[in-house]
Amino acid sequence: MKVIFPGSFDPITKGHMDIIERASKVFGEVIVLIMDNPSKEYTFSKEMRLAMIETCIQNLPNVTSDSSTGLTIDYAKKHHIQGLIRGIREVMDYEYEMQQATINMLLDPQIETFFLLSRPEYSFLSSSATKIVAKNKGDITRFVPKCISDVIKSYYQ
Ligand code: ADP
Questions:
Q1: Is 16 a catalytic residue?
Q2: At what angle do helices 146-155 and 127-135 cross, to 10 degrees?
Q3: Best of 10, 13, 16 for a ligand 1 pocket test (most atoms within 8 Å of beta carbon)
Q4: What are 120-145's pLDDT values in tens digits?
Q5: Which one is catalytic: 86, 89, 118, 131?
Q6: 80 C-alpha vs ligand 1 centroid, how far in Å?
Q7: H or E element in which residue 103 lies
Q8: What is the DSSP letter of 100?
């Protein structure tokens, strides 16, 4: 099955990567999809976020990346994608994700949402926490893949 993993990835973290790697073992093809929401402000440009994702997935043969705007479900329909992956860290994620998944189910019942639980070591991890640490010159090596940590550090220099 071909699935998408939609999100902001501002920036991609080890928590996202763990979900991507695990999904790539279960599903035939995974597309990491930057969904740009015009009412949201991002720290990194779409091009930078996409480049960071591409660096991180280069050794995963069945994983690709893309970006889109509008409704995630419309992207899925247009590209004949049957499933959507989301990660869940804690109860707050669950409440939000359940609402989104139910809306998507109403919009198109053919597209399934699959939830993967965060590994305990990443359940604290978010893009925003990573940015706060990076901005204050803290150590982000436990938060983001090694290959992109310099890009993030230099952004805040
Ligand atoms: P969005 O703005 O769509 O929530 P994010 O990039 O913050 O975009 O998250 C994309 C997806 O990755 C969401 O399903 C989120 O729950 C999941 N995710 C984020 N961080 C982690 C983590 N540390 N462990 C597991 N899943 C995560």
A1: yes
A2: 60
A3: 16
A4: 999 999 999 999 999 999 999 999 99
A5: 89
A6: 23
A7: helix 91-107
A8: H
